[in-house]
Each structure stands twice: as C-alpha cells, then as structure tokens.
Amino acid sequence: MAPSGRDDRLRRVVVAWLVIDGDLWDHPYDSSPEARERSRLYNISTLVTLTAGVLICYLALYVVNLVWALFVLDPAVMGGYLQTSLGYGDLFVLAWFVASAATVGGGLGSGLESDEAIRAAAYSKSEEERRHRLARQRNSDRGRSDRR
Q1: Do the Cβ atoms of 101 and 12 come closer than 8 Å?
Q2: Contact status, residue 1 vs residue 96, Cβ threshold 8 Å
Q3: pLDDT of the chain along its 148 residues, tens only?
Q4: Distance between CA 69 and CA 79 in Å, rounded?
C-alpha cells in the first residue's frame, strides 16, 4: 500500500502547523500594492518550500521504514504472534503508519523549538537579513509617525 490521499491532508496540516507555530506568514509592512505583492510572493515561496521539504522527508522516511521492515520483519513470524495471516503487503501499511506518525510527531516537536530556530531552518541567511532590515525599517517609520 503506497501513501494515499490522507497523507496529502496530513502534509497540509503539518505545513500549516509549521507556518502558524513558527510565525512564518509574512505580513505587508504597509498597504502599498508592492508590499502586498511582495508578501504574497514570500508566502507562496514559504508554502512551496515547506511542502516540498515535508514531502521529501515523508517519502524518505517511508522508504527507509519500508526497507527496514522488509529487511528485519518476517510476515509469517509476525502473523504468528498476532494470530493472523500477514503478507508483505502488510509491511507497506506498517511503513506508511510509522512514517505518518513520525511526520506528525516531528511537526508537533517543532513547537518545542524557538521561532528563531524554525526561521533559521526555513529561510536562508539573506532572507533572515531581509526580514531584520524590514523590521528595522518598520520601527523607524513608526517612530517618525509617532513624532508627528
């Protein structure tokens, strides 16, 4: 049994959790069309990057679990302990279940990390510098408007 449509929902939930918990959603710093477009592009690139990362890690985990299960587990022996008939197809299901549970666990575990650590993993150094520069610019713009 290969990964199914439920896995797609699982990946969407993990990506949504990473974006929300890591505060990765970009907000425009003003109401100009350029700022809104820039934020839209950054948000799309964040979602595409995280989705690709979660998908690649999920598939790698699935393959590793499947190879390990085929190497270590004998369906006949496992079926004897469970008192049911098992075949090699059941190992595909087992690998799917373990990869899915580990993906959810990894996503939830990211909540234990700081927002800075999540952003460092999600963004390049130049992106971090851009975000700091925009934050300083926003703060200086607010300071000027407060003095008026």
Answers
A1: no
A2: yes
A3: 445 566 778 888 888 888 888 888 888 878 888 889 988 998 998 899 889 988 998 999 999 999 998 888 888 887 787 888 888 888 888 899 999 888 888 888 877 777 777 777 776 666 677 777 777 777 776 665 555 5
A4: 14
How many CB atoms sit inside 10 A of residue 75's CB? 17
CA distances (Å), 72 to each of 18, 42, 65, 75, 88, in order?
33, 44, 10, 10, 12
Q: How far apart are CA 111 and CA 106, in angstroms?
A: 9
DSSP state of 32: S
* Residue at 129: amino acid letter: E
CA–CA separation, 131 and 144 (whole Å): 20
